[in-house]
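pls design
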């Protein structure tokens, strides 16, 4: 829920399209430390809710920092946050993680493209603070399009950062393979950036570390073919049962029937509506659960995913 009131205390310009907002609590309290890789729900002045990764050090409790890219096809979220000024009040939610540092890995490789540096930056802060072995590889179109470049070049972990500017997409795979040279199935790879970029990282990294050890942070909804969708039944662990038509989502049916489900983006990105699966086989269509989570089949995103079995029994978180 977006029930934390925050004030914008500083606005920074990191590229012509990306600005940062420094947020402090209106009630004067400190934030709790968050797990690196987390994002928050943010409601701007127009009432549009969007998710943004936290990019300040996770242990920093006086304020939180987000970066907002002005999207040309924005539906109001990024445009509104590019119009707020210092002193304006916003509403945010508690940090949530879809990607976080994996315990027990022998090496960590962070691969970012463009504004995808934001969650990778917080992971780098945490890994450095913990003294773990990691590298951060960052691709951007040019210096003008590279967010936090000055910070990365001057950070305490700058020796672990590798920056590539203006490298064509077709040539990036070679550099990624070089970064993976010392990695193995006990290593983990984390990536964020444009969809095509992350697909490329996944394709290069999977043969080296395995599919379960590649962690992807999405900003965009998956493209879904709904032409062959069929109806199915959802039963709650309370015993209530609902028919899900071919053209309706589980989330929408439950909401219309007065079932309180925590939701946010409703596009399979934020993970707000992820719930447990007790029986049945989910048809995963989200961009929030990891490959390992989907393989386990014991949770699903109710806003976009469906069923491969005639019936699902679910537990609302």
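designed seq:
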């Amino acid at each position: 829920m977006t029930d934390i009131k925050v004030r914008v205390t500083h606005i920074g310009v990191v590229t012509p399209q990306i600005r940062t907002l420094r947020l402090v609590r209106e009630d004067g309290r400190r934030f709790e430390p968050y797990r690196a890789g987390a994002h928050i729900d943010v409601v701007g002045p127009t009432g549009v809710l969007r998710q943004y990764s936290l990019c300040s050090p996770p242990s920093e409790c006086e304020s939180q920092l987000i970066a907002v890219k002005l999207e040309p096809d924005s539906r109001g979220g990024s445009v509104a946050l590019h119009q707020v000024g210092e002193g304006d009040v916003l509403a945010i939610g508690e940090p949530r993680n879809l990607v976080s540092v994996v315990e027990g890995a022998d090496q960590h490789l962070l691969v970012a493209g463009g504004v995808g540096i934001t969650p990778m930056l917080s992971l780098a802060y945490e890994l450095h603070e913990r003294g773990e072995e990691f590298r951060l590889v960052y691709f951007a179109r040019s210096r003008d399009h590279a967010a936090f470049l000055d910070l990365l070049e001057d950070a305490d972990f700058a020796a672990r950062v590798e920056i590539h500017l203006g490298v064509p997409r077709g040539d990036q795979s070679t550099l990624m393979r070089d970064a993976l040279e010392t990695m193995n199935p006990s290593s983990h790879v984390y990536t964020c950036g444009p969809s095509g970029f992350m697909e490329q990282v996944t394709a290069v990294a999977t043969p080296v570390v395995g599919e379960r050890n590649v962690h992807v942070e999405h900003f965009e909804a998956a493209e879904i073919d709904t032409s062959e969708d069929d109806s199915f039944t959802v039963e709650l662990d309370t015993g209530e049962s609902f028919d899900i038509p071919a053209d309706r989502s589980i989330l929408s049916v439950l909401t219309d029937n007065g079932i309180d489900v925590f939701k946010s983006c409703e596009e399979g990105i934020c993970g707000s509506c992820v719930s447990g699966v007790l029986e049945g086989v989910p048809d995963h269509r989200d961009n929030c659960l990891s490959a390992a989570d989907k393989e386990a089949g014991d949770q699903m995103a109710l806003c976009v995913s469906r069923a491969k079995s005639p019936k699902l029994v679910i537990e609302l978180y």
